[in-house]
Amino acid sequence: MKRLGLLLCFPLSVMAAPNEPAGLVQSLDSIIAARFKPELPGVAALVVKDGRPILRKAYGMANVELGVPVRPEHVFRIGSTTKLFTAAAVMLLVDEGKLALDAPVTRYLPDAPRHWDKVTIEHLLAHTSGIPNLSMDSGYWRTTARLDHTLEELVAPVRGRALEYAPGTRFTYNNTGYNLLAMVIEKVSGRAYFDFLDQRIIKPLGLAHTREGTDKQLIPGLVTGYRSGPAPAWLLASNNLHAAGGLVSTVDDLAAFMLALQAGRLVPPEGVRRMNASVVLPNGEATGYGLGSWVRMVNGKHLVGHGGYIFNFYSQLEMDVDSGIIAVTLHNGDRFGGDNEVLSKQLISEVQAWY
Q1: pTM reported for the whole predicted model
Q2: Which residue, 27, 78, 32, 83, is CA-closest to 251?
Q3: How many Cβ atoms are within 10 Å of 111's Cβ, its own excluded?
Q4: CB distance 318 to 347 below 8 Å
Q5: What are phi and psi of 8, to 5 degrees?
């Protein structure tokens, strides 16, 4: 990991391509090119081994109407891959003694409902809180998600509802839980959520193109999203995504973030280990999710990371922490190239086979 930290001194976007085996580069290129048609919404892809880029390339269109191809440096909405940043922010505050993973959320949000007094910070990170998920409400994506809401307004509708299960006993993916974490971050840090990310993660790592995915300002380099057809992406109010899915980024920034995280440059190694370890329920079942990170085994190797899907962008950031391999894919459509998680597995498996 020490080597990875040193290589981060040089932005991935300007590093010279290493002298990798030509056959490996060609194979990776073929895997991606077979999925994405040049005239349709495309993908920016970056594959890294030990901090060195093996493949950095784009495929398809950033804007179909104007015939603008995707470039590797283009900016994409990353959806739920944002959750990995939120989790890192929480773990920073844990390391500083400002948060405790086993503390109830009511300690930090005194106005939270009393029936949440057994819901801990760790439960929110691990999607095991039992708090209802607002984004699963009928009609949410057709109506609510299209209107501007504050963080409080995104949480308020579930305050009076009963818990769906005893905290810690089940896994249910939950966007509301991550927006609650944003409220906790703001309360204990005294900074707005996106400001905290900017000051503690984004600027220190030099992530020049990672920011709040606002729809109130122009975002230089942002590609256009598409749903099936292709047709224009569904309109959403970006502030509804917030800590659960509100960032935009690039393949270079995401790889640099993952390298820094896994090298212990953001969160101490013990915290990183907790993030990377699948939570085990009382019945002995592993959820396949740690603290802000999906966890899976591929070819006997430990893979961690996060994917995101939000109308109509699809992202995947994943690292084989045993082999030092990272795959990042950012797509501006509704799976025109298939499932990014499957693609990530293919790319990582291909590199594994060469080393």
Answers
A1: 0.94
A2: 78
A3: 7
A4: no
A5: -70, -10
What mean pLDDT is reported for the chain? 93
Cβ(203)–Cβ(289) below 8 Å: no
Q: What are the chain's domains?
A: 2-8+19-354 (3.40.710.10)
- Mean pLDDT over 120-139 rounds to 94
What residues pair up with 313 in beta bridges, in sequence order? 310
Q: Provide the pLDDT confidence category of residue 259 given band limits of 50, 70 and 90.
A: very high
Structure tokens at 225: 């999203």
Compute the chain's Rg from CA coordinates.
20
Specify whether the CB–CB gap between 236 and 145 falls below 8 A. Answer: yes
Kind of pairing between the strands at 68-69 and 43-49: unpaired
Structure tokens, 258: 């993952």
Q: Write down the pLDDT at residue 239.
A: 87
Residue at 165: amino acid letter: Y
Which of 176, 246, 192 lies closest to 214, judged by CA? 246
Give the mean pLDDT of 274-299. Answer: 97
Q: State how far the Cα of 117 lies from the Cα of 113, in Å rounded to an integer.
A: 8
Q: Where are the alpha helices (DSSP H) in the chain?
A: 2-7, 22-33, 82-95, 105-108, 121-126, 151-159, 175-189, 193-197, 242-245, 251-262, 269-276, 340-354
Ramachandran angles phi, psi of 262, nearest 5°: -70, -20
Q: 138 pLDDT band (50/70/90 cuts)?
A: confident
Alpha carbon distance 245, 312 (integer Å): 12
Q: Is the pLDDT of residue 4 over 90?
A: no
Tell me, rounded to whole angstroms, the distance of Cα 42 from its chain centroid. Answer: 19
Query: Tokens 């293919």 label which residue?
Result: 346
DSSP 266: S
CB 298 within 8 A of CB 349: yes
- Tell me the CA distances in angstroms from 194 to 13, 86, 92, 142, 144, one per residue in order: 24, 10, 15, 26, 22
